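Retro notes (design track)

What went well: tokenization of the new backbones is finally stable.
What didn't: we kept losing track of which sequence belonged to which structure.
Fix going forward: every design gets posted as structure first, then sequence, in one message. First example under the new rule, 553 residues:
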């Protein structure tokens, strides 16, 4: 008898078993405390004695179609807005707001992802889903009708609808729709920006979103055996961890303001810049303290971060996604500002990156499914990402098409190969009762990565560009450069000496943002060496591992 079989037999003898709906048996997890016991009793799921009632046939098809539409709604917007950002600078003449345009969505998404998870747990899933779609559409409507840059930024923070599904049989098709939508986003955004107006990048959400609401109302019916976790309204509010959410969001806003002002509209030693940086640090410290005091009600339960498998993958996710967001948002700036390409041409030239990102994700899914190994592919992914970013870093003002498409192929495939592995690892090695919270933590890491690194990249981009201009062309008005949009660069600075100086300064700024992404990729290599080398448990061994505490190496 193998060691695994022996352990399985011991577990069957040591724990009472309960029948599952597929005829197999598994043992319940023993709660670590009275509070955890109460929490385990309040999990949305099958009601005792009730037969599962899952959607099938046409009803399932309509439900999945609704989910696919919402996926298209969210995924398209990422690529559309990234491509449209240079066009938005034409409208508002606020290059220093680029960091906000990109990070506003991720800022609120990162702070609210765990809170949405608890909303789905304690409230009616159907109406929570509708509320998230409605918020998304309201944000798009306000942004499309907005008169200024500040209002666009404010309404952008509602663009991320937090629509998530976890049914394993349908994840593959859902991911396929997400990838296709992400690939089409830059082309659609480029077409709108070039042929009509960038505002159509926002208006497009309405004809997509209204059918989603109608389909959800008509066809999304939760199975009879699945009910919201029973809890009083007071307990639900406590579970949302509003203090933690507020502190995290406030810290991100302070950091964003500090990096937007510093070196651009205000000097670095200005009182407001220093104050917001200090506030950011203090708020982060207080947030960690609040999460520790909240215990099981925390938006980030600190006990879930203790296993090395969890915290290493969370950091890997946070760091490696930095490169993803920098490339998505600054490659269009390179194409449109420096090469003078139209938005639609820029979108088409971004397709190799997104297409090979999709290919890498599919390859990753296949090989992980076959081998059940995780860490080796994260290491290979990080190494190839670092090489790809090194090629991006060496781009020049006059680089050829082959020169800027090659790095996209390498980096896109590398990123896709490892991008979803951290989520798979954390979900695969979590107890069933912890999967939802662990997933929320990983989604939070992904989104906060965008919030942090997009504003950091924008600060570095603007500061390095302005410093270079002061050195190479001190006669050029830096404020004028900041307030000039992408399509206006070639005409506003048409002088024989001015245009090369401005483009050269832009190139320095873009290169330094790529340097940040390259450093992040290199750090991901180091982190991948710390991640435990373990195989993803299969269906049978997973039940045993859920019952036996694992000692991390």
């Amino acid at each position: 008898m193998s060691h695994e079989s022996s352990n399985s037999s011991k577990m069957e003898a040591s724990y009472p078993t309960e029948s599952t709906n597929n005829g197999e048996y598994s043992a319940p997890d023993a709660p670590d405390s009275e509070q955890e016991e109460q929490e385990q009793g309040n999990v949305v799921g099958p009601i005792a004695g009730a037969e599962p009632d899952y959607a099938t046939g046409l009803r399932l098809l309509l439900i999945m179609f609704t989910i696919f539409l919402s996926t298209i709604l969210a995924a398209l917007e990422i690529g559309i807005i990234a491509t449209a950002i240079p066009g938005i600078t034409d409208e508002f003449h606020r290059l220093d707001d680029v960091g906000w345009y990109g990070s506003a969505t991720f800022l609120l998404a990162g702070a609210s992802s765990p809170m949405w998870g608890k909303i789905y747990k304690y409230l009616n899933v159907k109406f929570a889903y509708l509320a998230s779609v409605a918020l998304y559409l309201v944000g798009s409507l306000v942004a499309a009708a907005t008169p200024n840059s500040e209002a666009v930024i404010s309404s952008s923070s509602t663009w991320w609808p937090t629509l998530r599904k976890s049914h394993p049989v349908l994840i593959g098709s859902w991911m396929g729709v997400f990838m296709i939508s992400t690939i089409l986003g830059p082309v659609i955004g480029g077409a709108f920006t070039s042929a009509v107006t960038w505002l159509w990048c926002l208006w497009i959400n309405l004809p997509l979103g209204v059918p989603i609401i109608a389909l959800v109302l008509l066809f999304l019916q939760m199975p009879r055996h699945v009910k919201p976790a029973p809890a009083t309204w007071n307990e639900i509010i406590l579970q949302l961890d509003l203090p933690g959410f507020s502190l995290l969001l406030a810290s991100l806003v302070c950091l964003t303001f500090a990096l937007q002002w510093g070196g651009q509209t205000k000097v670095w030693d200005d009182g407001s810049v220093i104050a917001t940086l200090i506030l950011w640090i203090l708020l982060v410290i207080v947030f960690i303290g609040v999460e520790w005091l909240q215990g099981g009600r925390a938006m980030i339960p600190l006990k879930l971060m203790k296993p090395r498998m969890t915290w290493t993958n969370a950091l890997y996710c946070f760091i490696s996604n930095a490169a993803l967001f920098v490339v998505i948002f600054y490659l269009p700036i390179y194409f449109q500002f420096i090469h003078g390409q139209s938005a639609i041409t820029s979108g088409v030239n971004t397709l190799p990156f997104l297409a090979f990102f999709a290919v890498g994700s599919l390859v990753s899914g296949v090989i992980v499914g076959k081998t059940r190994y995780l860490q080796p592919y994260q290491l290979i992914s990080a190494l190839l990402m670092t090489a790809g970013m090194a090629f991006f870093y060496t781009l020049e003002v006059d680089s050829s098409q082959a020169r800027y498409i090659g790095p996209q192929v390498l980096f896109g495939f590398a990123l896709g190969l490892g991008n979803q592995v951290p989520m798979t690892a954390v979900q695969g090695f979590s107890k069933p009762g912890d999967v939802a919270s662990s997933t929320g933590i990983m989604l939070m890491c992904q989104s906060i990565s965008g919030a942090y690194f997009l504003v950091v990249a924008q600060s570095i981009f603007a500061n390095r560009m302005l410093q270079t201009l002061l050195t190479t062309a001190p006669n050029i008005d830096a404020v004028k450069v900041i307030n000039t949009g992408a399509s206006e660069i070639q005409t506003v600075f048409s002088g024989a000496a001015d245009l090369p100086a401005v483009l050269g300064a832009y190139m320095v700024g873009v290169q330094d943002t790529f340097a940040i992404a390259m450093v992040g990729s290199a750090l991901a290599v180091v982190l991948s060496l710390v991640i435990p080398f373990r195989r993803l448990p299969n269906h049978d061994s997973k039940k045993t591992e859920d019952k036996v505490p694992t000692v991390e190496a």
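Added context from the reviewer: The CA atoms of residues 372 and 538 lie 8 Å apart.
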